[in-house]
């Protein structure tokens, strides 16, 4: 969601801030702004829409006005208040002495706003963030110390926040704090940085300090001081950042999404390296702290995730139950957290999140930890809060994913879930022959995805053919039902076509009423137990004159009769086929959106990392 960058040092702060914000654009936003420390004042510049609008406005300013050694920047994804200039960050107090940027949601902002209004404070926006700015300024008026003021104010707040705060009376420092929202400090030489995501500062430093909840940090160009909630000086570990700046380049591709789709074979190879030697060797997962005795004690598994990660969890349900005979429940985090938490020491809870900072999933994991369940986290960010909450960790190692629509991270999640299912089954001495088949398919998967990618021209032609349709249906059965859901999600995310995924057998229970010549239906048709049943559902769609696209790993005589188009993929065992089928769906969605001229990497209203509930 929203993105934060802060800088203090010898460089011109505006250059660092704008560069950092440009690398946070993928998070999704509707406005951008910066606050720059001046001589006895703080200069604020804001613009609606894309960052380029702010950059154009800054070009018209007096260079002296935007020259500064310290500043904070923000891209906003609207929660409280419309996307207006008044609601854009940074926000200030009435005297303009204090300025801050904020990620998160202040739940009790109305109560505090009422209190401050009685004190004579005037509000100019609809945001909860402005309330925080005035509250900290109010506390600063009593203490004349920014650290103390931030501490006093945040103790009165409820919700989630990452704040970066500047005051004109303390021009050589920036104060930052967080609770349930990501914020890190980048450690430099004669300069220091703040950011909500490492991609914003990876160009400048490889050393980071991750703030814990309720810690308050004061940074100058030469020092970093971190205090706990009792304002006792403490030390946090300095960690090495895992990514290279080259990951932020499109490397010749038109969009990051297409680049990331094409990276999937290498992502899978990276995941498998050191974990599977061959189909006859045991899976090695060194950060999964579950031995044979613990696994045999598990009587239920809960998978908690959101969006694309939820679909990966649904695939996990099929494969884990098949290989381990342990019942698995999958639920969206946003629903899980608002009902009774039923888990105990015999429950394995798997949390899946690309960023490791998904607010709903964090809340859910904290709830199950109170029940003594074993928590296993699958994430792309091993430094994230969810990773730090885990008892066991599967780092998917997909690298930075810039496009809002998840592609390579989804494939990485799937492969990691397969590895976990095999690992647990091997500990239980289950189904050795089946395990060998799946391991063989995983080892062959990169080459098979490369074969699909090499056939992308065919998919591009089909995409152009169907790009004018306003609605789309995806159908599948069994382990590929989640592939239908994810394929539909990808299409609607980036093309804005009303796409819906269904279990194929459910067509006749309502959705079949929508079928006619204006409704394309994409069917996933892998050889296996449910193949004949899906074909039967396709014949039902054909009888209603729907346009039919098949994704298949075999040629059937019926294909030529009822399908308008067939996308042939390499032969693959049905149990691993979701990882191959989704590549087709990703490419189809990409080419349709690209043909329609959509903003593929930054679709409207969406955020890469949802860090608020």
Description of the structure:
The model has no long low-confidence stretch (mean pLDDT 91). Helices cover 36% and strands 22% of the residues. Strand 9 and strand 10 form a beta hairpin. Helix 4 packs across helix 5, helix 7 runs parallel beside helix 13 and helix 16 runs parallel beside helix 19. With 613 residues, it is of the alpha/beta class. The strands form 4 sheets. An 8-stranded antiparallel β-sheet has the order 3-2-4-1-10-9-11-15, with helices on one face. It has a 7-stranded antiparallel β-sheet with strand order 5-6-7-8-12-13-14. It is globular, with a radius of gyration of 26 Å. It contains 19 helices and 25 strands. The N and C termini lie close together (11 Å).
State the shape: globular
Query: If strands are numbered along the chain, what order do they take across the biggest sheet?
Result: 3-2-4-1-10-9-11-15
**Class of secondary structure makeup:** alpha/beta
Which percent bin holds the helix content? 25-40%
Binned strand content: 15-25%
* Biggest sheet overview: 8 strands, antiparallel
Poorly predicted ranges: none
pLDDT averaged over residues: 91
The radius of gyration computed from the alpha-carbon positions, rounded to a whole number of angstroms, is 26 Å
- Per DSSP, the total helix count is 19
Beta strand count: 25
The N- and C-terminal alpha carbons lie at a distance of 11 Å
Write a brief caption for the model:
This protein has 613 residues and is α/β, with parallel strands linked by helices. It is built from 19 helices and 25 strands.
